[in-house]
């Protein structure tokens, strides 16, 4: 049984039902559950078993302090990117996909297309973890190369799927890298580590309108090439 007493999900259901939840209840998540998820997620593959991932868990007062300081930084001045997540000019078909999910999300949140202030308010919710009681921050040793970025991505996917088995949900949040120096300082993350991503973890609040969003996915007929000769 999962944390909330519901039957555990089978693997396929856990994977295809995963979504980025943008509204959580304040119900606490026991730290032993967080540790169990992280311990199990560490079965993710990594090149020559290097296991390069590192995780900083923000809960309680540390979570509140981080949320306040990053929100203040976001309101006060320019972004301080940890790294470039995507190019300044996103090519097709990626640009259309990003616009589609953005318009769909804003529509559910009641934000008109021209309402830039509304968009900013929505974006700032990232820095409250959308109400989730647990913030996870994934980092890598800066001496490592691109292969380790693949490894940490697989580890993060395990975290998200395993959380569903506990009756919890997640939202991976690249938004935290826009204020990397603040996150480093508040959580005492060493300068030798790159902040790869944040992630909200908690009990979903399905009454939040944004949680009705179901994003579209391309099928394998569109992205997979089968060579049988």
Notable traits:
229 residues, alpha+beta, NADH Oxidase, 8 helices, 12% strand
Write the layout of secondary structure elements.
Elements (H helix, E strand, L loop, with lengths): L10 H6 L14 H11 L12 E5 L1 H17 L17 H15 L7 H9 L9 E8 L4 H20 L3 E5 L6 H7 L6 E10 L17 H4 L6
Antiparallel strand pairs: 1-2, 2-4, 3-4
Describe, in plain words, how this protein is organized in 3D.
By secondary structure, this protein is α+β, with helices and mostly antiparallel strands. The chain has a domain at 23-87 and 129-211: NADH Oxidase, CATH 3.40.109.10. 39% of the residues lie in helices and 12% in strands. It has 8 helices and 4 strands, in the order ααβαααβαβαβα. The protein has helices at residues 11-16, 31-41, 60-76, 94-108, 116-124, 146-165, 180-186, 220-223; strands spanning 54-58, 134-141, 169-173, 193-202. It has a 4-stranded antiparallel beta sheet, sandwiched between helices. The radius of gyration is 18 Å and the shape is globular. The N and C termini lie far apart (47 Å).
Largest sheet: 4 strands, antiparallel
Strand order of the largest sheet: 1-2-4-3
Radius of gyration, in angstroms, nearest whole number: 18 Å
N- to C-terminal separation? 47 Å
Short description:
This protein is α+β, with helices and mostly antiparallel strands. The chain contains eight helices and four strands; from the N terminus they run H-H-E-H-H-H-E-H-E-H-E-H. It has helices spanning 11-16, 31-41, 60-76, 94-108, 116-124, 146-165, 180-186, 220-223, and strands at 54-58, 134-141, 169-173, 193-202.
């Amino acid at each position: 049984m999962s944390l909330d007493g519901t039957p555990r999900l089978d693997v396929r259901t856990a994977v295809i039902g995963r979504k980025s939840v943008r509204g959580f209840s304040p119900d606490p998540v026991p730290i032993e559950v967080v540790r169990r998820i992280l311990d199990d997620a560490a079965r993710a593959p990594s090149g020559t078993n290097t296991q390069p991932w590192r995780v900083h868990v923000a809960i309680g007062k540390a979570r509140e302090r981080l949320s306040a300081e990053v929100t203040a930084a976001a309101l006060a001045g320019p972004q301080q990117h940890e790294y470039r997540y995507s190019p300044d000019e996103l090519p097709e078909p990626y640009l259309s996909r990003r616009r589609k999910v953005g318009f769909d999300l804003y529509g559910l949140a009641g934000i008109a297309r021209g309402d830039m202030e509304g968009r900013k308010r929505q974006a700032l919710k990232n820095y409250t973890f959308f109400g989730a009681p647990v913030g996870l921050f994934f980092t890598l040793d800066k001496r490592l190369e691109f292969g380790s970025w693949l490894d940490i991505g697989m580890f993060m996917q395990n975290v998200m799927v395993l959380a569903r088995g506990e009756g919890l949900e997640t939202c991976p949040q690249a938004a935290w890298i826009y204020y990397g120096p603040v996150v480093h300082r508040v959580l005492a993350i060493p300068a030798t580590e790159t902040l790869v991503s944040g992630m909200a973890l908690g009990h979903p609040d399905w009454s939040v309108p944004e949680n009705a969003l179901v994003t579209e996915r391309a099928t394998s007929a569109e992205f997979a090439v089968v060579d049988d000769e």
